[in-house]
Amino acid sequence: ECIARGLSVKYLTADEVIDYIHQHQLYANTEEKQTQ
Prior knowledge:
Layout: H1 15-23, H2 30-35
């Protein structure tokens, strides 16, 4: 929910998990996925 809203999860989860989420565009809104 935090990522989808554009908020940081830096201190809530491991860096590897954050990297994976960004690499696979998980929790991104549709508009954000289309521009990347």
